[in-house]
Amino acid sequence: MQFNATLRSVQGSSASRRLRHAGRVPAIVYGGKEQPINVELDHNEIFHALRKELFHSSILDMNLGGANQQVLLRSVQWHPYKQQVMHVDFQRVDASKVLHTKVPLHFINAEISPAVKLSAAIISHVFTELEIACLPVNLPQYIEVDLSKLLAGHSVHLADVTLPKGVTFLSHGGDTNPVLATALVKGGAAATDAGDEAAATPAA
């Protein structure tokens, strides 16, 4: 995806307020061997771009003065109660360096799973995105999680998903195989996966 940016020569909170009143958004581009640069964006263009999932999870082409730079969206600051973008951060992309970023999960085939078709279970998405590491050329727009074989009371773990080539999951807290989705049985209780049930205690 491509978006347009213009160099911003004036900085400071007063200058940023004037930009916003003029329908512009202050932003910064950092990373790589170059110094950070301050840019400004058209509010309407960036507002609509931010509503697209692809803009958050892919390498972007920033058109700056007729020259393209590849960047990643890193953070967005929104007005606390208005539909207004206040500030945007982008990071330059180096084709030879590994990226650490988040990509969305797309859950598919829940409606044909035994959990839903046979048991009317409710599918709970524990994760909606994964933090990954990969080279820019291997960055996926999303990762599919197939729920077609999910049984009621069971879960889909990361190990059940084939990650795209060159993509590594970045675990936090030591959990290398997190639960991605769970089929909740009727009544709201989540039965455990097979083999996880506690053994029954014999009557005294």
Question: What would a concise description of this structure say?
Answer:
With 204 residues, the protein is mainly β. It has 4 helices and 13 strands. The strands form 3 sheets. The protein has a 6-stranded mixed barrel with strand order 1-3-2-6-5-4. The protein has a 4-stranded mixed β-sheet with strand order 10-7-9-12. Strands 8-13-11 form a 3-stranded antiparallel β-sheet, with no helix packed on it.
List strands and helices in order, with pairings.
Elements: E1 2-7, H1 13-21, E2 24-30, E3 37-42, H2 43-50, H3 53-57, E4 60-64, E5 67-78, E6 85-92, E7 99-108, H4 114-117, E8 122-125, E9 129-134, E10 143-146, E11 155-157, E12 168-169, E13 179-184
Parallel strand pairs: 1-4, 2-6, 7-10
Antiparallel strand pairs: 1-3, 2-3, 4-5, 5-6, 7-9, 8-13, 9-12, 11-13
The stretches of 5 or more residues where confidence is low (pLDDT under 50) are: 191-204
Backbone CA Rg: 22 Å
- How are the strands of the biggest sheet laid out side by side? 1-3-2-6-5-4
Structural category is mainly beta
* Count of individual beta strands: 13
Ends distance: 67 Å
Share in β-strands: 35-45%
Shape: elongated
Overall residue-averaged pLDDT value: 90
Helix fraction, binned, reads 10-25%
Count of separate DSSP helical elements? 4
> What series of H and E elements makes up the topology?
EHEEHHEEEEHEEEEEE
Note the main sheet: 6 strands, mixed, barrel
